[in-house]
């Protein structure tokens, strides 16, 4: 597969998903870039904005097995990872996998669960495995978590700690559709939509993830990236400076974004396109913040051609 073929497949997926999630091409491209970069995605928005629809449509278009976990206050870690059940006829314990054992996992309203249950995802997201009763079980490949959360000011929410926010490569918000597209949604009604045809096979998806690693990043672009990160650490404007993990996430997300645009090299525009989604939740942590101001302030402080 060459770069043009990969970009063409990406456009097919974006157009396919856009049939379900109207007027959100840029957010769909960011979500696809996150998957291609082997990251995990956090979607923060009001209920009813299409977060679950986006997850379903991505899974169908990418040939991925799918599960949805509704996070609630009484959800336990074992409800996610699975449990070992004693088989008296065989006189041994047998592991029953939990719903996390799917290629695309939707962790719906993750901030409604207790911090203990939220943390059950940490090992899975970082190591692509879970440990139950001292035994380690590998998760499917690819493994992509899309977590949704309600705004922190809504009742019954537990803010994600900074350590868990940092596990998400990107954070996006869908926002309201345009009036014209909302009219189209109303005309469609609530009838069940047919399943989307898969645009990409699992083999092609694996090839595209490997191609992301081969996207060239020049020394000038790496220096620009480091200047952005370093400024967050030296300026007093930012409560939580960007970590080395954030540097890596920004680079990988930028490379994946470049691939979706049909380029095998990274540009400053690619870094700027993903910067807000990669960095804003890291810069502000779990506190209320102006989601645009922080990242834009940092971008404006560093000239990419300097």
Outline the structure in words.
By secondary structure, the protein is α/β, with parallel strands linked by helices. The protein has two domains: 3-213, P-loop containing nucleotide triphosphate hydrolases (Rossmann fold, 3-Layer(aba) Sandwich); 215-306, Orthogonal Bundle (Helicase, Ruva Protein, domain 3), CATH 1.10.8. It has 13 helices and nine strands. It has helices spanning 3-18, 25-36, 51-61, 77-81, 115-118, 120-127, 162-165, 179-188, 202-214, 219-234, 244-260, 268-284, 293-301, and strands spanning 41-44, 66-70, 82-87, 92-97, 104-108, 129-132, 135-138, 144-149, 170-172. Strands 2-5-8-1-9 form a five-stranded parallel sheet. It starts with a helix and ends in a 5-residue tail after the last helix.
Can you give me a brief rundown of this structure?
The protein is an alpha/beta fold. The protein is built from 13 helices and nine strands.
Q: What is the domain tally?
A: 2
**Total of helices:** 13
Structural class by secondary-structure content:
alpha/beta
Mean pLDDT: 85
The major beta sheet can be summarized as: 5 strands, parallel
**Share of helical residues:** 40-55%
Order of helices and strands: HHEHEHEEEHHEEEHEHHHHHH
Poorly predicted spans: none
CATH class of the largest domain: Alpha Beta
Question: What CATH architecture of the largest domain would you give?
Answer: 3-Layer(aba) Sandwich
Q: Roughly how many Å is the radius of gyration?
A: 20 Å
Span of the ends, CA to CA: 36 Å
The shape, in one word, is globular
CATH topology of the largest domain: Rossmann fold
Strand order of the largest sheet: 2-5-8-1-9
Number of strands: 9
Strand content: 5-15%
What's the assembly state of these chains?
single chain
CATH superfamily of the largest domain: P-loop containing nucleotide triphosphate hydrolases
